[in-house]
Design a protein that fits this description.
The chain has 4 helices and 23 strands. The longest helix is centred in the C-terminal third of the chain and has 9 residues.
Length: about 375
């Protein structure tokens, strides 16, 4: 879901809530996207962590392996032509070349006004652009879990002086990933309530490991399904070191599946939250950070399915035991290349024509 902004966003210190844009509740098997809606004033960000979200801010000049992340994007958008009366918030990442942003399909399939901020620190952006066109993956129809929730936004002017990122072309299941977003925040123990916008104006980061891909995961939770896949996904759980809350391992045990899940990365563990939708999962290649995943959905799976429950909360709250899913970029690398290679229009002033292509996209609920 997209989150409507009344001014609120973030990554849950130990749990980046995978439903990043906040308002829709379309899902497969109860999964939901999390874009956040921001009403005209008042903010609440989300990424769930193991410790206070302020410890996980992405601050100006911060680097990982010598690389800065001003290319992380905060995306504000709406379909009423006006951002001043409230808007939805998603996240994204600048692609190498500086002309395109990679994000989720559900963040780009229904808007007519969009503002994309880069390098946002304490709510001040290093650079701001609009959208000239949106290219939503042809397989995206609102159905989650089938690897189609991905889009490329063409900017209305190139971004210069900020590093963009190349995409991973390999299956990164089993890899530790650096996750980032502009969504809501909370802590994974559930003691601080659901993700909120207390950290609005800051991006947040954390770490998690992609334990399993889409097909193996869906076969474990929905045996005999007839899903048609358009790409792959990475599925994460929010671990706290306890067997009880190691959701993916408990799912694998129950289903007799071959995948496995560790008990987490300790204090570094995080999960996405509302507003993180479309944000990036990065893998380190040895020489550069590659875009490996695009945040898509969140799911509180255990209640009513596994006993005792593996989740510390009853709902999708980016708490220990929650799951998140990201569209696997490697499975769309050729499509992304084809979009980025599209010749630029003679003038970036063709924005209105480009936006017509994204309006009226119908989202479908796969299952209640």
């Amino acid at each position: 879901m997209k989150r409507r902004f009344s001014r609120s966003l973030g990554i849950v210190a130990a749990a980046l809530s995978a439903a990043l844009a906040a308002s829709a509740s379309f899902a497969a098997e109860g999964r939901s996207t999390l874009p956040l809606y921001v009403p005209g004033a008042g903010i609440t960000p989300q990424t769930s962590h193991t410790s206070p979200p302020s410890d996980w801010r992405l601050t100006a000049g911060m680097t990982f392996n010598g690389v800065g992340f001003d290319g992380l994007a905060r995306i504000a958008f709406d379909s009423d032509g006006d951002l001043d009366n409230g808007f939805y918030v998603c996240s994204g990442a600048l692609l190498a070349g500086g002309r395109h942003v990679l994000t989720a399909g559900h963040c780009a399939d229904n808007f007519n006004v969009m503002q994309i901020d880069f390098g946002v620190y304490d709510n001040v952006a290093t650079a701001t652009r609009g959208a000239a066109a949106a290219h939503v993956n042809p397989g995206w129809d609102g159905t989650l879990s089938v690897g189609a929730d991905i889009a490329v936004i063409q900017l209305d002017a190139p971004v210069v002086g900020i590093q963009g990122f190349n995409v991973s072309t390999s299956n990164d299941v089993g890899s530790p990933m650096l996750i980032m977003g502009h969504g809501t925040t909370t802590t994974g123990d559930g003691q601080n309530g659901p993700p909120g916008w207390d950290e609005w104006g800051w991006a947040h980061f954390g770490w998690n490991e992609a334990d399993v891909g889409a097909v193996d995961f869906n076969n474990a939770v929905d045996p005999g399904n007839d899903y048609t896949y358009f790409g792959d996904e990475y599925v994460f759980d929010f671990d706290n070191g306890r067997w009880l809350n190691n959701t993916l391992q408990r799912i694998a045990n129950k289903a007799g599946a071959s995948f496995s899940s560790s008990r987490g990365l300790g204090a570094d563990e995080a999960l996405i939250a509302g507003g993180d939708s479309g944000g990036p999962d990065f893998v380190w290649s040895g020489s550069e950070w590659l875009l490996a995943g695009v945040h898509s959905w969140g799911w509180q799976y255990c209640r009513g399915r596994i006993f005792p429950s593996c989740d510390v909360n009853a709902g999708v709250a980016s708490s220990y035991g929650d799951l998140s899913g990201s569209t696997a970029v490697y499975s769309h690398a050729a499509w992304i290349d084809s979009v980025v290679a599209i010749p630029e229009p003679g003038s970036y002033g063709m924005m209105a024509m480009g936006l017509l292509a994204v309006a009226g996209f119908v989202r479908r609920r796969r299952r209640a």
